[in-house]
Amino acid sequence: MMNRWLRENKVAMWLLTVLRVYIGFQWIEGGWGKLTGGFDATGFLTGAIANTGGEHPSVQAGWGAFLQHFALPNVELFNILVPIGEFLVGLGLILGTFTTVAALMGMVMNFAFLFSGTVSTNPYLLLAEIFIVVAGANAGKVGLDRWVLPYLKATLFKKHTKHGGTPTAPAPDHRAA
Q1: How far apart are the C-alpha atoms of 24 and 18, rounded to whole Å?
Q2: pTM over 0.70
Q3: Surface-to-core class of residue 169, CB atoms within 10 Å of its CB (0-12 exposed, 13-18 middle, 19+ buried)
Q4: Rounded to whole angstroms, what are the CA distances from 158 to 113, 123, 150, 166?
Q5: Which of 9, 69, 110, 117 is the least crowded, having the fewest Cβ atoms under 10 Å away?
């Protein structure tokens, strides 16, 4: 019942638009600040790794191992991916372009930040992004998805037809087995 309302209702469409744009501004602001402010994830990663120890670790050992053995040695890559990712998630949500994908990628980043021991606004953004993902295309109807998704569906997923008629079956293979 709730899924159907989120996916089809016009009131839900408008509420999701407000929510989507708000979340988009949160992401784009964070991404832009990192893009223009000389972002370096080294301190964040080092702090998260340090939080894997002690009596009550806020970062689980497995995630800490990922951060220590992959993220930290490749910090220059993360210094590029994080700000660009945050900015693109924000842009996609604000414009309503690839809305579901943008919200899903926002969720991935929110989970990564939470796994790294940073609570901040991540749980709130994560919860809101869940509604956007569940709503699917309805979340982007007041946005560019209104035109982008039907265009992509028509061009990328069209069935091949012969002479403009109905879809044709592939020709049988008459080669000897």
Answers
A1: 10
A2: yes
A3: exposed
A4: 39, 39, 11, 12
A5: 69
Which two tokens mark 105?
A: 């990628």
What number is the average pLDDT over the span 30-56?
94
* 162, β-bridge pairs: none
Arithmetic mean of pLDDT, 77-81: 96
Record the tokens describing residue 118, joined without a space: 């940073």
Over the chain, what is the mean pLDDT? 90
The mean per-residue pLDDT over the stretch 124-134 comes to 95
Residues 22 and 26: their CA atoms lie apart, in Å, by: 6
**Residue 148 CB neighbour total at 10 angstroms:** 16
SS3 152: helix
Instruction: List beta partners, residue 161.
Output: 167
Decide: 14 and 143 in contact? Cβ < 8 Å. Answer: no
